[in-house]
Amino acid sequence: MLHSTYKINELFETIQGEGAFTGQPSIFIRLQGCPVACSWCDTKHTWDIELEQEVNADTVLAKTEETTQWSNVTVEQILAIVKAQGYQAKHLVITGGEPCMVDLTPLCLAFEQHGYSCQVETSGTFEVLVSEQCWVTVSPKINMRGGYKILSSALARANEIKHPVATEQHVDELKALLKTHNVGEKQVYLQPISQKPRATELAIKTCIENNWRLSVQVHKYIGIE
Questions:
Q1: What are phi and psi of 197, to 5 degrees?
Q2: Contact between residue 26 and residue 91 where contact means Cβ atoms under 8 Å apart
Q3: How many CB atoms lie under 10 A from the CB of residue 71?
Q4: Is residue 129 within 8 Å of residue 123, measured between CB atoms?
Q5: What percentage of the chain's residues is helix, strand, coil (to nearest 5)?
Q6: Which residues are bridge partners to 214 per DSSP?
Q7: Is the peptide bond before 146 cis (omega within 30 degrees of 0)?
Q8: What is the pLDDT of residues 74-122, one digit of tens each?
Q9: CA distance 100 to 147
Q10: What is the per-residue pLDDT across 154-210, written as a single tens digit (0 to 9) for each?
Q11: What are the counts of helices (DSSP H) followed by strands (DSSP E) for the chain?
Q12: In whole angstroms, what is the distance from residue 185 CA to residue 86 CA?
């Protein structure tokens, strides 16, 4: 199982700035590849898997800017990198790209066996294959250019639903989605897109009206990765 490989665009330690784990010291693993094609995506460099952009893990670790370069590494190698880097965080965030394009179970189990908690951030458009203990954040990407539908199974597995909003249409789409899939009492977070004042005002108003929570991408406000 430990020989499963993952295409990693970035690996770094920071503070989680979104959702239920806001403020949590975290190790982020950003995987390459995403066909969902959100127009306002802030990680478009992770969309395409170009074979000529494959590099070694040291090159990925040394990145100082966003690039399309990625490294194919095993779970064992990832654990070794984390140990060698001396990271103190014990919370692993697997993001992308769309991380659920691949089976994340081996990665989650390996880190959990070494005392880490795991979290996956997904669009909800692929089956969520993770460990039982993994915290799943579904940020449902509704009606995006890629044409992928939100899966009921992904919403059912979600521990939290974190929805980007900029307009009333985004709010209406979320309400329709929640009603259609009957997600129960899961905690819902609204996240203003790009920190725009109007989006933030709408998110605050909607959170109060629906007893939802606000997620404001703290890392962007304080200027960290």
A1: -55, -45
A2: yes
A3: 23
A4: no
A5: 35, 25, 40
A6: 190
A7: no
A8: 999 999 999 999 999 999 999 999 999 999 999 999 999 999 999 999 9
A9: 16
A10: 999 999 999 999 999 999 999 999 999 988 889 999 999 877 899 999 999 999 999
A11: 7, 9
A12: 39
* DSSP summary character for residue 150: P
Cα separation, 130 vs 150, in Å, equals: 18
**In the numeric block, which tokens belong to residue 76?**
């064992």
What is the 8-class DSSP label of residue 70? B
| pLDDT on residue 2 | 52
Nearest to 138 by CA among 106, 183, 170: 183
- What are the structural domains, with CATH classification, of the chain? 5-164 (3.20.20.70)
Average pLDDT over the chain reads 93
Cα diameter, the chain: 49
